[in-house]
Structures are given as structure tokens and as C-alpha cells.
């Protein structure tokens, strides 16, 4: 199981470094590209613990669709304001303190509760996921499809230019 | 492999996302930080699913991914409208409702 540990360590280190670059990058396009690395790392972790369907979905939806949406959003709203460091310096210190405090609390709780619980993943096949999703979770599944339709219509209505405006 | 390795990685990503939401002023970057937070939650769901040998973790993660996609669509539409009205996506300038 050494190989698993090494793989996890490499993926985790790359993900944390990229995530830090996402929130500190000066150029917002770079931030979006670093976000791709983080999302790919998440997909790799899903595959590592045997969640194959969610891993593939992560690649298709996040890297395929969400990042493209972000790049469109960046291109449509590009302004000079991106160039100078737009991190608000008077809010930077409280933000770091909040994040570190939250991290300390979560690490303490997790280490206390799940100290040395072992994870021995077994592959979870797509067939198992679909059996569960289309029997016990069919109502939430339909609700989420209505939610997507509502979000689609809402986004069109919000972003549409007024007639003659 | 320890369960805590996954959970601690999720906690670190979550806190980085929280820092991004609090410290950055660019509307699109705040949305990206929210994506980081949601992915941290997904890592936890998948880790617990694998820990308990159940696919329910995967199903919840799929729902989170779907809702996140809807959230990005609406969020970017709002940022776009903001840019069209104010020529800027600086969240500091969004103070119309300030008393």
C-alpha cells in the first residue's frame, strides 16, 4: 500500500500548492488555470478511492463545463482592475486569521475523532451508483433536474440585454 | 491509507477557499473560491463513502456537483449584470444597499 500513500502525497501536495495560487494569483486567468489543476487532483483522488463514476463526472462537469464558464466570465468582464493587486490589504490579515483559526479547529476535531481509522477502499461500480440513484434517490434526482432548468432560465433572464437598451 | 489523510486535505482546501472568499475583491475569483469550498466538501463525502463501503457518498457528491454547476451559472450571470451596470466587478463597489 506504499504506492497508494505516495500517489496520495503527490496529488495532495500539488492540490494544496495550486489552491494557494488560485486565491493569491494576480492574473485571474492564471487563477482559473490553477483551479483546473485542483479540480483534476480532486478527480484523481476520487479514482484513487474507487469512486469511478464521480471521478469521471468531476472531469466532465468541472474541467469541461465550469472552467469554460469561468473563462467566458473572465473574458466578458475584463477590466484594468485585474492588473494591480486587488487583494484588499486591510482585509487580508483578518481573512488569514479566520482561515487559520477554522483550520486549527477542524484539524483538532478530525484528529481527535478519526485518529487512526483506516480507509481500505473497494471499487464502487457505476452500476451500484445507478441502482441506488434510480431507486432510493429518484425524487431528489428529479428535483435536481428541475433546479437545473430553473437555473438555466434564471441565468438567461438575468444576463439578457433589455430590448432596445 | 488513513481516513484522516483525505479529511485533512479537505479541511485545508476548505480553509484556502474561505480565505479567497474573504480576502479577494474580484467577483469571479470569489466564485472560484466557492468552487474550492464545494470540492473540499465533495472530498469528505467520497472519503466517508469509501470508509463505510457505501455508494451514498458518491450520490451526495453528484448532487453537490449538480448544484455547484447551477450556482456557477447564476453567479456568473449576476457578475455579468454587475459589470454591465457599474463597469467593474470590484465587490467593494457593490454598496447600493448600504445604510
Q: How does this model look, in words?
A:
The complex is a heterodimer of chains A (165) and B (99). Chain A has 165 residues and is mostly helical. In chain A, 75% of the residues lie in helices and 0% in strands. Chain A has a single domain (2-159), classed as Up-down Bundle (Four Helix Bundle (Hemerythrin (Met), subunit A)), CATH 1.20.120. The termini of chain A are far apart. The mean pLDDT of chain A is 89. Chain B is mainly α and 99 residues long. Helix content of chain B is 78%, strand content 0%. Classes of the chains: A mainly alpha (165), B mainly alpha (99). At the A-B interface, α1, α2, α3, α4 and α5 of A face α1, α2 and α3 of B.
- CATH fourth-tier homologous superfamily of chain A: NADH-ubiquinone/plastoquinone oxidoreductase chain 6, subunit NuoJ
CA(first)-CA(last) distance of chain B: 53 Å
Can you name the CATH architecture of chain B? Orthogonal Bundle
Q: What is the tally of helical segments of chain A? A: 6
- CATH fold label of chain A: Four Helix Bundle (Hemerythrin (Met), subunit A)
* Rough outline of chain B: elongated
Question: What amount of the residues of chain A lies in strands?
Answer: under 5%
Largest sheet of chain B: none
